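Need the bound structure for 2-oxoglutaric acid, inputs here:
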Amino acid sequence: MVFGKRLAAGVICWIQLAATFPLSLNSTVSLTPCFKPGIDLSQALSQPMLGVKAVIIHEPFRCIGRVVIQKLKKAPEGFRYVFDFMSPAEEQNILAELRQLNFQSVVMRGRVAKRTVAHFGFDYIYNTQQARPSKAIPPFLQHIISKAALIAGLPDDAFNQVLINRYPAGAGIHGHKDAPAFDETIVGISLGAPAVMRLHHRTPTVVQSFKLTLEPRSLYILSGTVRSEWEHSVDPVKNLRYSITFRRVKPVPLLLKNKTTRSA
Ligand SMILES: O=C(O)CCC(=O)C(=O)O
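Answer from helper R.:
Posting the output first, comments after.
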């Protein structure tokens, strides 16, 4: 009975794909129960992923019911990762400063997260998705903030908001996109324990994901499609980890300044 249902789901999935995706003789995909080689997903995928020429037909994928699940081997457009962005000595100095900070709880939809946060430049109000001017960015971050901006190809003063996440063992962060209150480029650096980051993109028929380990002292950049269209998450960590995120709060139009508008 169960086998019959699975077979039916697989056949539906295959028929749906065969009808939706054009065949390409040059493409090769791994054989799975519900796919055959020669299916080119690139055209279908480039529709929801605006501006991306996604040629990902060599990646393995599988079906769950009618949805194609695809684990990418290459990072999606707009994602960059840099090893050893800082030296072990720099990391130790920053960690010593982070231990002195006063971290606040995060409450989202009535639930208190295991991670705690500190904001500088602007506070971020999780419930309303708004940024509000707050404490100045501390001097110990000035050097790495400029270095991060340089790597991202942005001016020295590109970032005006810093978010520090403190993840004790067992804490992670669920899939999300950074709020539209923040500009196009987001830079994150990692200190302490390594962590697994996942990037996800969903349409009604295709779920794509990419996974990597964020090593301590590394930096990642989210911009372009991966910033605007994809979600990112961090799995629960095994040991204490900190991340420092650099962002730019977009200027608020004068008309909206005194209103409590909810971001999209
Ligand atoms: O810990 C990280 O590197 C990710 C942080 C993050 O995505 C966030 O706080 O919005």
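Comments: DSSP finds five helices and 15 strands in the chain. Residues 9-58, 259-264 have pLDDT under 50 and may be disordered.
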